[in-house]
Structure formats: C-alpha cells, structure tokens
C-alpha cells in the first residue's frame, strides 16, 4: 500500500481551509499525512487548530529577518526538514520570493478567491462586485514566481446575486473553497494530477482548461 501524501500547510489566519482538509481526511476522502502547519503570525488561530489535531507547528516571524528573501529561504529550509511531498498555501498572506520557491515548483499549490486570471492579489470580492461581474469564484493553482499567476488546476464558481456585498459574497464563496481545495489535494494524493514543464497533467493527459467543480465533483 502506498504511503500517504505528506502535506505541509502554510497559513496566516483562522485556518478554515485546513479545517476543511482535516474534515475530508476524517471522512476517508483524503489519504494524506499532515507533517507541518507553518505561519508567519504567532497568534494565527490556524496554529491552535493544528495543535488540537496533533500536527507539528512552526512560527517564523518576518520581523526577525533582514528582508523578504532572507525570510523566505529560512522558511522553506525549515519546511524542507519535514520532507513534505506537497505544500498547500491556505490563506498565507505573503508574496514569496521567486528564487526561494523555485525548488518547490510543481509541489506547491494555493487557493485564491477569484476566477483567475481575474483579480490577482487582494480584495477580490470587492473588485468583482465593482466590475459588475455576473459570477465569482475560487481557483486552486500551482504556485510560481508570478503572483497568483501559476497554472490553474481547478475552479468553482457561483452567481453574484443582487443583494451581495463584499462580506455576503465572501461568505457564500467560502463553502465552495472548502470543497474545492480538498478535491484537488485528493487528486494529487491519488496520483491523478501532476505538474510537468509543458503544463498540468490530469490522468496522464494535458489539462488545457481548469477542472470545474460541479455537482460535488471535479469535471473536465
């Protein structure tokens, strides 16, 4: 029987996406081992969640380093000591130095609250509303040096409703994020999804468009 996929999670906040991953594992949907939860904030509630699940934690304070590059190299050096197969950015609110993440290319994914390539960066719900978009959504993508610009693996979308404001839209999207991320990690754990220099491979075939979350599953 193959060993479970070893996962390290990086997060800066409450950890709702980690909670979704843990719940999926408890349901038997995610054959993974969480080897580390790391954060740049000592008071991030994601750390409490990890400790309650008996997952090793690490806090690295950016203020203790001369610059972003020095911090990022130190961070990934310490993460590497835990030998994860996959790094999951789940609300990690930092831009990562491109050289520091290069060794992790194809082994690091991020969940972002927009239908990429729309609205990279912050305030995605506000920007979608301001633009008058008919729909909004979330994307899981491989992390590259380009901010929120790596190849998109999968997306979930929902219609924007007349009564939506920024907070309402964010609240309606969050449950979709909590379904999308575990589903993508499950495909990686099953060996069905992989990175190649020529693009994403899904079931050994090139993935030309992001998978879409529909009716409780990821579809081409």
UniProtKB/TrEMBL annotation:
Gene3D superfamilies with a match to the protein in the record: Formyl transferase, N-terminal domain
Main enzyme class: transferase
Pathway: Purine metabolism; IMP biosynthesis via de novo pathway; N(2)-formyl-N(1)-(5-phospho-D-ribosyl)glycinamide from N(1)-(5-phospho-D-ribosyl)glycinamide (10-formyl THF route): step 1/1
Record GO terms (molecular function): phosphoribosylglycinamide formyltransferase activity
UniProt: (6R)-10-formyltetrahydrofolate binding residues: 68, 93-96, 110
GO CC list: cytosol
Residues the record lists as binding N(1)-(5-phospho-beta-D-ribosyl)glycinamide: 15-17
GO biological process: 'de novo' IMP biosynthetic process
Catalytic residues, chain numbering: 112
Domain (Formyl transferase N-terminal) ranges: 6-185
Keyword line: Purine biosynthesis, Transferase
Matches recorded under InterPro entries: Formyl_transf_N, Formyl_transf_N_sf, GART, GART_AS
One Pfam match: Formyl_trans_N
EC number: 2.1.2.2
Reported function: Catalyzes the transfer of a formyl group from 10-formyltetrahydrofolate to 5-phospho-ribosyl-glycinamide (GAR), producing 5-phospho-ribosyl-N-formylglycinamide (FGAR) and tetrahydrofolate.
Similarity section: Belongs to the GART family.
Full protein name: Phosphoribosylglycinamide formyltransferase
Organism: Dyella choica
Gene symbol of the encoding locus: purN
